Amino acid sequence: MVIGLVALLVTLAAVIAAAGHAGYLAMLTSAAKKRPGGQPAADFAKKRYPIAGVGLGVTLLALLIGSGDTAGADIFAILLGLGGGVGSLKALQSTQSRFRKGDF
Predict the structure, then answer these.
(1) Which pick of 16, 25, 99, 104 has the fewest CB atoms within 10 Å?
(2) Collapsing DSSP states into helix, strand and coil, what is residue 102?
(3) Which residue ranges traverse the bilayer (predicted)?
C-alpha cells in the first residue's frame, strides 16, 4: 500500500516535469512564430520536441505501470518515473539555458 502511494506520487511528479518541458517548448514556438525574426527560435524548439515527447511517454508509461497491484511493478514504476522525470527536468533546464544564451 505504501509503495503504491509512493509510486503514484513519484510518477505524477515525473509526468508534471515532462509536461512542463513540452509546454515550455510549445509556448516558445508560439511566441517565436508571432514575432518577426523568430524563426530560428521556432526551429530550435522544433528540434527539442522529440526529447520532450520521449520524456512524456516514459513518464506516462511509468504511471501506467504504477497502477498495477504488485510491489515489483510499483518499484519499477518508481525507477522509470524517476529516470524520466529527472531526464525531463535536465532537458528543460538545458533548453532554457541554451535559449537564454542564444545558442540556437
Answers:
(1) 16
(2) coil
(3) 6-28, 49-67, 73-92
Write out pLDDT tens, residues 9-42: 999 999 999 999 999 999 999 999 998 988 998 9
pTM (2 d.p.): 0.88
Rounded Cα distance between 52 and 39, Å, is 20
Cell of 18: 515532462
**In which residue are the cell numbers 515525473 written?**
14
Cα separation of 64 and 43, whole Å?
32
**CA–CA distance from 91 to each of 12, 13, 51, 53, 72 (Å)?**
18, 15, 8, 11, 28
Structural domain containing residue 86: 1-101
